[in-house]
Design a protein that fits this description.
Structural class: mainly alpha
Largest sheet: 2 strands, antiparallel
Strand content: under 5%
Helix content: over 70%
Number of strands: 2
Shape: globular
Order of helices and strands: HHHHHEEHHHH
Radius of gyration: 18 Å
């Protein structure tokens, strides 16, 4: 095969893996699974565990054939700089973001905040979700676009970020989607700067931990 054929094949493979991830979200979101998992407080733990269990082996298999979505480096200096940028982004967003009710709907059982739900939800969104989502978005989706238009990093990052935000359909406010787009652009920059997924995964974990920290405090420490 020539180089152009190889590029198309790689882009189609990356896109196909992204569609597998999307298929998992559709499957979990269908009746009777979705209402059953939601009522029992395990929607996110189950969804994130399935996505993690499928995406990580696919990423490892892909890495045996292509070197374009590596784990990359995670240097302390890089991590500190990008963590500060993330904190600055979160600080700026605090002035305009509107409260979203989705997290509360996943954690509250009637009028009570159950500790086990909070812990399971937090482990899912802080550990499992960042790994799976970075493999999908800053990994395969971004790579598919870069393979097709290698000289357009900014455009590829922007399109990846818009898709990333748009697929977070649990959120209802436009400003939340804008914030997710900005977060994704920072994660794309981290991918480019570190030449891999370790740094964006670490930043994604930090972002999600900061999001669930108030719930953990309310459930266990208050």
């Amino acid at each position: 095969m020539n180089k152009e054929t190889d590029k198309v094949t790689e882009a189609l493979l990356c896109t196909g893996i992204c569609l597998i991830w999307y298929g998992i979200t559709l499957l979990i979101g269908t009746a009777p699974l979705y209402p059953f998992l939601t009522e029992n407080g395990v929607l996110m733990p189950v969804l994130c565990l399935v996505e993690f269990s499928v995406m990580v082996p696919l990423w490892r298999w892909y890495g045996q054939h292509y070197a374009s979505v590596p784990s990359g480096s995670l240097r302390l200096g890089q991590l500190l700089i990008f963590a500060l940028l993330l904190l600055l982004l979160i600080f700026c967003q605090s002035f305009y973001l509107q409260p979203e009710s989705w997290t509360a709907s996943q954690l509250n059982s009637g009028e009570r905040l159950e500790a086990w739900r909070t812990l399971a939800f937090s482990l899912a969104v802080v550990i499992l979700a960042p790994v799976a989502e970075e493999i999908v978005f800053r990994g395969f989706l971004l790579q598919a676009l870069l393979t097709l238009v290698p000289g357009q990093r900014l455009a590829c990052a922007l399109l990846t970020s818009l898709i990333f935000a748009g697929l977070h359909t649990q959120y209802v406010h436009l400003l939340t989607l804008i914030a997710l787009t900005a977060l994704s652009l920072l994660l794309c920059l981290a991918r480019f700067h570190s030449n891999g997924l370790k740094l964006p995964v670490a930043l994604h974990m930090l972002n999600n931990f900061l999001g669930v920290a108030p719930w953990l405090w309310a459930a266990f420490l208050r």
